[in-house]
Design goal:
four-stranded antiparallel β-sheet; alpha+beta; 3 helices; Alpha-Beta Plaits
């Protein structure tokens, strides 16, 4: 079964194009190292919750948009091997591909799917 890395980020609205360019460069590295799919989703219907929500999770400011992203891997072993290489890839260094958002407020985690539905599965 596949393995998923998930991310939630607060990105300044004015940095949308910079974020897209940053993501394209970074995501191509993940794909090169074995990811099967990467999605970067710009929030357009992210509501405030009563107890918690995406915006609070990343301390999004009024001028920021929540981005929800994930990387799909064929399995955890492929992901673990790739991450060791990806984290040392110079193309992802802040000097080469600076983050157009506050990386300290990015949240992420690895997930093992327990239900998987869809065409072709």
């Amino acid at each position: 079964m596949s393995y998923i890395d998930g991310f939630v980020i607060a990105v300044p609205k004015q940095n949308k194009q910079k974020f897209i360019e940053h993501a394209k460069r970074a995501d191509s590295v993940f794909m090169e190292h074995g990811a099967t799919r990467v999605l970067e989703c710009w929030g357009d219907d992210v509501k405030d919750g009563k107890l918690t929500d995406f915006r609070r999770a990343v301390q999004a400011k009024d001028d920021e948009v929540v981005v929800f992203s994930w990387i799909e891997w064929p399995d955890k072993a492929t992901r673990d091997a790739a991450m060791a290489k990806v984290m040392n890839d110079r193309r992802l260094s802040p000097q080469t591909n600076p983050m157009p958002f506050d990386g300290k407020r990015l949240i992420f985690g690895g997930f093992s799917p327990v239900v998987e539905l869809g065409a072709g599965l």
